[in-house]
Amino acid sequence: MFYKNLNKLSYGVRQLHLSKRFKHALPDLPYDYNALEPVISAEIMKIHHQKHHATYVNNLNMTEEKIQEALAKGDIRSVIQLQSALKFNGGGHINHSIFWTNLCKDGGEPSGKLLQAINRDFGSLQVLQARLNAIAIAVQGSGWGWLGYNKIDKRLEVACCPNQDPLEPTTGLVPLFGIDVWEHAYYLQYKNVR
């Protein structure tokens, strides 16, 4: 279900680049809310997208406006105080925009260069899945488990980030696949079983 759309990551990234010139916008999902059932319920998808992600987008836009106002006034204290809101809401928007492109109805196994890289860096898809699951389950509180690409070492790596911290600014890894381990992503359907 998840690996098939790794090459569609550019969809979410394009949405983010387009939003630089304008206000940030909630990206449309490339599938219907019920497309991932029974793995992820339509109710979770709708709430996750329309409520949680939309809130990150709205708060990001408000935070950027406040930063611009503070900059215009030369109020560096306010600019500094707003950085945590910028990181949290900007990260929430970035992370979710990537996350939606990782999901698809029929899924499938990775193939081609991605599978070759997985086998080279982890030994097998099963080892990658086990490591990614372990790192996501181990997140204390809320956060994200990621498969990322290390541009320096030219290798795939797994990593986790707390809260809505975005992967690339936090670790330098290019995000390829994310697992949202905030309760809003699973709790209605899976309760406390991450």
User: How much strand content do the residues show?
Assistant: 5-15%
**Could you name the CATH homologous superfamily of the largest domain?**
Fe,Mn superoxide dismutase (SOD) domain
CATH secondary-structure class of the largest domain? Mainly Alpha
The string of secondary-structure elements, in order, is HHHHHHEEHEH
C-alpha end-to-end distance: 17 Å
The low-pLDDT segments are 1-20
Query: What fold name stands as the CATH topology of the largest domain?
Result: Helix Hairpins
Please state how the strands of the largest beta sheet are arranged side by side: 2-1-3
Structure characterization notes:
The chain is mostly helical. It folds into two domains: 3-102, Helix Hairpins (Orthogonal Bundle); 112-190, Iron/manganese superoxide dismutase, C-terminal domain (minor pseudopilin epsh fold, 3-Layer(bab) Sandwich). Helices cover 52% and strands 12% of the residues. It is built from eight helices and three strands; from the N terminus they run H-H-H-H-H-H-E-E-H-E-H. Strands 2-1-3 form a three-stranded antiparallel β-sheet. Helix 1 (9-18) packs antiparallel against helix 4 and helix 2 (42-73) packs antiparallel against helix 4. The two termini are 17 Å apart.
